[in-house]
Each structure stands twice: as C-alpha cells, then as structure tokens.
C-alpha cells in the first residue's frame, strides 16, 4: 500500500462511534479501508490509545470552517507525550435526516442529534419541520444508533451520510445544512518517528507558549514567522487553564520543517519562547503551494549560510 | 440604584434556563436582582431580544479559564446590529451533585448534565461513582429541572449551586469540579448609547477582520496595539464561515476607548483593516489597572498633539 | 514678488564668498536677485545673523550627491534657537578652471581650490595637468579671488561657473568634474513663523535624539514613520559630541507637517524620543510627489478620527 | 611580537604626513613601532598600497566624537577589492600650538592648520589670539612641517603633540582644544585572511546597500539586528554617488562574526539586501562587552539548532 502514510500492523482509531464524519475522513486515507478501525469516545481517549501503542494513529477533527478550531483536539495533542500529525483530510460537512422504515416527515415531533449539527440545520427545520424539538446526543452517529435500538425519545436523527449507509436507516432529506460549502479539517496523529517527506505544499502545526504578558509579546512570536516569509494559515489561543488570560497558541503555518525558512523560524521561536511543541509537517489536503519570495527560498538560505561560513 | 450599569424599565435576559451560572453572574450586577429577568435558550436568541428592544441587556458567558472563548457568544455579538458590552462579571465554576429527596449516592446509575460539566467532573465521578453513565442535557440547569419534572432517564444532575438553591433539590456533594480555581467571565451586552465611564481598570472588546492573507498580516494589526503600549488580554481567531482559514479576530485589550493610547490604536486599526467593530469599553471585574509607561500616558499624547498643533 | 518664499526688508545671507555654488543656489530663489545678499564665512555665522535678526534667511548646502550630508550645516541648524527651512534648491556641481588673462594651461604648476573641489576633479587633472600641485583654499571662490588679488601661490583656480562670471577671470576649461550629474542640495533657513503651504510634493526635516542605546532603539524611531507610510529620503547620524557613539539623527521625510500621516508620525515620535526638533516643511525642488496608499491618506486619517470620536 | 595583530615583513602605512594623530594611533599597535611605516597622502592612496601588496595594513581615522564618520575612509574601505579591519585604536584629540624657536605669542598674526583643527580651537584663539587669521593646510602635520621649511605664510601651527615631539618645534600652548574629551577612532585595515579571534568585547563593521526606497526599507535591515539582540554602535548613510538619496549604510555592531547571534544576523541580511560587505570583526579598544540576553547567547542558538535538527 505504497501511498499510505503508514505501514503498521496496529489498528487505527477515530472519534466514534462508527459513521461519524471522522470515520469518513479516515476512510479517505489510502490503505485505511483495509485496516482495523476502532472508535474512541473522545479525542483524549483516541490519543491515549496511540500513546499506549494500542493504535498506530488517531483521526480527529481539528478545525471546522464554521465553528473554528476543535478545542478537545487542540488541547489533547498539545499536552502529554509528544505526537505528530502525519496526514490531513478535508471533508465537506453535509447532513442527512434519517429515520427507521415507516417514519415519514409528518410523524416527526423530536429529532436527535449533536447540538452542533442541530445548530447547522436551523434553516431547513425552520422551513420544513418548524415544530420539531431537539433531543441532544453525544454525536450525530449516536443519535442514529439510538433509532436502531428503538429509542422513543425521538423519531429521526440528523447525521453524516456515512451513517445512513452503514445503518441502513432511510434518508428522508439530504444536504439539509444551512451553510453549503462548510468543511471540516481532520488530522491523523501518530507517535513521532515518521516525518512525511516535503511535497512543496505542506503544513506544519505548532503549539507555542505565550512568552510573557506585555504589549508586543505575541508580536515577538509572529515576527519570527514574518521575518522569514512564513505565512500562518491558522492561529488560535487556547487557555492553559492556569488562570484567565494565560494562553498557548496553536498555529498552522505554510511549509515543511525541512524547508529552510520554516526551520529558521523554528530556531528563532525556540530561542524566544519558554516552550514550543512541534506537532508535525505533512502534506496539505488542498495541495496549494505557498508563495515564496526569492530571498526566503532554500537557495537564499544556503547562499547566506555559505557566505557567513566562508567569512568565519 | 446608582451603582447599576443601567437605568431601564425593560427586563434583562440571560442564557437560561433559570439557575445557570449565567443567571448567577447576572445577579451579581448591582440592581439586577430587583429587575425582571427572562431566560433565553441561546446567545443569539438573547441578543435578538436586546436588538429588538424587548430586553435592556443580555448576560452571556464569553470566556472560560479552562475551555477558552465561548464561540456562540463571540460570533453572536460580532454580527448583526451593533451592540456594546457594558459590564463584566467573573464567576468561579463550582459544581454540585443534586438529586430529589430520597435519592442517595448508591441509587445513582445515570447522571444528567451538560457535556462541559460532565467533562469537568471526570475525576470526582471516577473516584466516587465510577459506574455512573452520562445523559447529555442542553444545560446543567435543564438537567436539574428534568429531575423536578420526574424524568426516569437519570437519577441525579450536575449543576451550579444556584440551581440547587432555586429548586430545593438535595445537594449530595459540592465542589466536585476537577479544576479548583476555574472561572468563567460573563458580559452584559446592551444597545449602543451607554458607554461606561473610565475607571482606570477597564477592558475594551473588538472584532477585527483580518486585513489580508500574507506573512505579517496579523503582525500589522498587532503593531497598532504594541506601538501604543496597549496590552491584549485575549485574542481569538473565529472563522468567518467564508472559507477555511478566513478569520475575524476577537480581541480584549486593557484600557478604555477614552484613554488616549487606546483611542490612538483604534484610529490606526481603522485605517489598516477593512472592518473593525467596537464592542464596548467597561470596568474589569478584577479592578486590575494596566501598566502604562509615561510615553503612553494621556499626558504624553496631549503634549504630542499640542506640539504638532503649534507647529502646523 | 508673489512667488518668493519671503517678504522682508532684511537682507539674505549665504555661505560665501561671492560666487560660491551657494550664492548660485540663492539666486535661483524667486526674488532673491533683487535683495541685498551678504556672504557669511561659515554656516554657524550665517545662522547667527538669522537668529540675531540681521538677515531674513540663510542659504546653506545641506547634502551633496557624492560627499553626503554637510556636517557644518546639519549641526548648526540642529542646535541653538529654533529655525525653519523654508525653501530648497538643487544645483548641479560643475567646475571650471579659471586664470587671469595671459595664463595658459602650459603655465600652470599649482592650482588653488577647496579640497572637495580638488577631490572631485582628480581625473581631469590626471589627464591634462598631471604635474599640477594643489594649494588648499577655504572655498573655491576664495581661490579665484586670490588670483584677482595677484597671489603667486598658484596660477589657476578650480571654482563654480558663477565666480568666473562675477570676476571676469578666463575660463580655461569647463565641466572638469569627474562625476557628471553630481548635485548639491541647498536650503534656505529662516526664523519660525513662515510655514510654507503644502504643495503635494514636500519635504520635512527633523533632528531626533536617539532614545536609548539598546538593540532596536533606532527601529523604534523608524517604526513611527513606517507605520504611517512615511518614506525617509535621507537619514544621517551626527555625533552629539558627548561621547563616541552618541548620536542625533538628521532626517528628511517625504511630506508636509500638514499632511495627516506626517503629523501623526511626529506625534508618535514626540512621545518616544527625549528630544525632537522640527526644522521645517517646504516644497521639494524636484516636485516629485510621494506614493501614498489609501490607508495613509488624509481622508483615511479623518475617517478614523471621526469613527473614534463618535464612539467616545 | 605575540600581541601584534599581524606578522608580516611588509611595511605599514598611515594617513600622513609624519606626526599626525593617525601615526600616533598606529604607534599604539603592539609591534608597529619596530616596523617600517610609510605615510600616505589620503585614505584611498593608503588602501591602494594595501590592495597592491605594498603595505601589510593601513591605519586610518574612521570616526570622530565631534565630527562624526570620516567620509574618505568610509568610502574607500567600502569600494574596490575587499579589505578587513583587524584592529582599532581610540586616541584623545588634543592640540598644541607650535612655532620655531624665537617666535612668541605676540609675534603670531597667522596660524597654519587643517580646517578641522582650526574649527576645534576657536575658543582658545578667541580668548588668546583674537586677531590671528587662519591659513588652511592639508593636515595639521603639514602646517608644522611648513614652519620647519621656513614658510612666511604663517608664524605658528596647530597640530598633534606627536608632531611637536618629532619636529622639535616649540610648544607655545597645549590642550587648546575646545572640547575636552574629544576622541578619534582609528582602524587598521588589511587584506582578508587574518580574522582576529573573538575576545568577548568585539566590534564588526559592515557596509550594506539600501534594499529599496520605500517606507520601512531601512527598518527591514535593522530588524535583522534587533531580532537577534545585536546592538549597533554606529550607523551612517553614505551616498552611493548614483543619485541624491541613494545610500549605502556603514554600520558598526557589537560582537564578532563568530558569535552565533552576529552570524545569524549576517545570514538574514545576506538574504534581504542586494549587497552587503563584511569589513571585519576585531577587538574593541575600550574592551566593553555587550549585554547579551540568555535567548541570544551562543548556547541558545546551539540548542535551537539541535532541536530543529533532531526534528528534521
């Protein structure tokens, strides 16, 4: 399976249960369909399996184009034993309304689903089932599974298309999401040891402790990227939990640690921040290469290094 | 009611139902206890009441020391008709386990609560009720109210102390949160027209569109703060929903728009960003004044303005 | 004489003696030809006349395209009673070789001139009079006047074309300068009180004390210009004389103090530096307008000020 | 001669004639007193001897605490074949008034000296010989030598103490300079090949082409120093001679190219500027070590390099 980002006899895990968007994302990874896939109940549990050597890698949602970063994932990969993102998948977020055989729209008074899914289908329900009430579930897939198990708390569920496929529930309506074009980005997280090769269109993820709480502290970090022409595609501040206003910055940047400008920025960051964690360099799902000016190219860095070396 | 940040015959609203931490926060506002208080089912609904003139102001959670920013609030105050934060309250997050009379620990097999509350009491349950399962609810207060209404889905609920007080449910255990010292910051949001006076220990909240997606774009924004010695106490990137990686920055800074250095930073931002929204200047709950260097004081700004004025 | 930058019954002064490039520059100022013009022996003496009210203004060289800034002028305008540059003239530096009637090239063994003029005609002499020796003079005009007075220290002088015209000495060779295209910039300096109107192509001259001797101190000054899109056309460090490495920066910037971006940069500088001196805003001789981005225009500054004013 | 910064059978040269402050500076270099020393008539001529292999090194004035940078030296070392500064000497500027035997103060009507020396002794002459006129000379030493040769153009000369010693002229007054404490910094310039060892208190001299003429261009250069905590002890803009306002920056920084932070700054500069010239790293005459923060130490750079290397 030469295209697969892994070669392992260990199973894979994902944010379950079966049928979630996360499993759909995992199935897009070359080779994953043929491997054992174990659902985990949350991000921390999935990564615990990886850290313990019980799973080779875990697929987790990291960012949604509507909801933003996924705190549980961002926090779980930034603490504890070091891990590396080795692959990324972007999946369109599209919802279906499912129900057991025999249930029609007219029979639905309550709908089970995850609160996020409910929030993202407000317009469709406002128009088609304005009187339906929401019963919260831990995941969209869990709500669907409850229907299979004969729950009487609700008559239909909002879930990912994959769940309908896996469970055989009837699809009463498809594409019911309010925001057409919404996507979720998922990452496959493994133990260190398998840095993917640079492809020219890569992403690097970091977790950086805020150096100090004074005007310009964040700028001092960002300057390390800007001065090497390294663009940030995502920056999130996550609380450390120590006190209100104390943050760790979760950052995605365009490029690979084997790119000279990225390596140089990381060296600069390592000097000015108390703590920085490298969470991996991996190919971008959209294969979009960054714009690199000549003076930030690998060649420019090499020339500069040679010039100084000769003078020293 | 001279200390109250408002003078209105309209009711107040808050993220309900009754007994939430949000209502507890609202009750800390001088004068709020004597006013009509209407619960809202979510942040958008609460602000809709304010915008429609049906409520004078809405109390909403904006930031938690463990979970970070509250996306629903951040997004709802940044879009639509302009609003202003006029007051802030910080409330310790402490949970109690409640049950109807007659129920004891030994009788509990399922516990109803909001997923966040469940996540923040994992250690206590691991030790005292390791076999209890979680039934998700839309809020901690909703779970408690379900007990009053005789639900048989669970026998106990995790909720705020205020709920126990209001409902008369028995407190089986108090202080069961894993993170002692966790706090949530709440803000009271009204229509423009009532800018609180500067106190010397104020906060200003802004929503700023990212100017452009290139290396240094975020730095160009932050430079406007740093060059005037304005410290940021919170910065969050929230997706605009247009496409992955397109953000609005939600920012809290130390100071009041009537402080010269803050006004000057806002003027600079207005020039360099396509869109900026002022969400209010209001007293900090912790009454902590910022450190201001002499060259960033109001006097320094006035002297500079006079000097240039005389030369022109 | 409506185009003249002055209206005064006082005489003008210039770096003499008569016939220097400086007098040539002064004669280019509209109206100056009709006024009394008094030579001064050096920059300090010329400005002393202005400060004492004995002359309306002094014309002095400030910058040469080959030699750089003119220290005597830069230092004299930066210390003592405040003065303002009100006009600028750029004059091509072209030298002629002059001698009394009857003297031919073959008769010349020594040449009198100012050391700078000698340095800038090395190639011509190397080719045409390789054996001629140099006799230093205090100015090119002084050397020519010595010939008139019958000196026997040298037989010819290198000077400005104006001197040949004024003295009637013979021109043996013209255009003998090594660097075709060299120019000198001259400024007319008066007492405060007559700020020239903005023309859209102006220059502003400042003298700025170095704020502090640490990495980034100079950057903190330059940031005030860069953050408002104000370009510097000249920056020179001049020793304060206190100790080696202690400087005042002499700066020319593109724009007029009545331009909003320039005024804002000056306000910023006034805050961050211990001492700043405004030396005038005046039309550029080359009438070249600066490039101003929309967000640095007067309109952008006005819009920003109105926005903040309305919020306060 | 182990302390000497050179080991050569070639002679040394200096800005002559004999007895100048420059020769005094050269004599302070360990070992120089025992070597052949050839005067040169100007900086360009001195460096031509070094470049041609006729002299091992040239001593030249580079900076004066009153007059600032010495343009002739700055320009001559920045153009043509590459050279390196290998030693620096700081000499107090103190003048004496000398005359042949038999001449007394009362006999003096004209004084020969270099215009700079005349400018720096104005106060003494104003008080003691207010009627004396100035006869310009090419150097202070040249004026003294003219007295020896029996000139009748002036009766006394202002020169360095060394000239009095070498010529045997009488010293009529000593310490006649207006600015007590003025010093001149001299540098010894050789061909590449002999980089002095770091001492912990070093200086590095660079010549850097301005990258581009837009707001912030100079800042982009300075940022390379500031971001590594490298302090500049001198910055001068020298015209390139191409057109008014086109500069090369002559810069002294605190540190040695073998210091990691300096090497890193040079690598950064090499990338962002079209042209940069390294003019040497050499011990500071004042032996003053720079302040280096822990995150800019050699260790911090090594740690950062190892961290990134391990990740790659």
TrEMBL record, chains A, B, C, D:
<protein>
    <recommendedName>
        <fullName>Prephenate dehydratase</fullName>
        <ecNumber>4.2.1.51</ecNumber>
    </recommendedName>
</protein>
<keyword id="KW-0584">Phenylalanine biosynthesis</keyword>
<dbReference type="InterPro" id="IPR045865">
    <property type="entry name" value="ACT-like_dom_sf"/>
</dbReference>
<dbReference type="GO" id="GO:0004664">
    <property type="term" value="F:prephenate dehydratase activity"/>
</dbReference>
<dbReference type="InterPro" id="IPR002912">
    <property type="entry name" value="ACT_dom"/>
</dbReference>
<keyword id="KW-0057">Aromatic amino acid biosynthesis</keyword>
<dbReference type="InterPro" id="IPR001086">
    <property type="entry name" value="Preph_deHydtase"/>
</dbReference>
<dbReference type="Pfam" id="PF01842">
    <property type="entry name" value="ACT"/>
</dbReference>
<keyword id="KW-0456">Lyase</keyword>
<dbReference type="InterPro" id="IPR008242">
    <property type="entry name" value="Chor_mutase/pphenate_deHydtase"/>
</dbReference>
<dbReference type="GO" id="GO:0005737">
    <property type="term" value="C:cytoplasm"/>
</dbReference>
<feature type="site" description="Essential for prephenate dehydratase activity">
    <location>
        <position position="184"/>
    </location>
</feature>
<dbReference type="Pfam" id="PF00800">
    <property type="entry name" value="PDT"/>
</dbReference>
<keyword id="KW-0028">Amino-acid biosynthesis</keyword>
<comment type="pathway">
    <text>Amino-acid biosynthesis; L-phenylalanine biosynthesis; phenylpyruvate from prephenate: step 1/1.</text>
</comment>
<dbReference type="InterPro" id="IPR018528">
    <property type="entry name" value="Preph_deHydtase_CS"/>
</dbReference>
<dbReference type="GO" id="GO:0009094">
    <property type="term" value="P:L-phenylalanine biosynthetic process"/>
</dbReference>
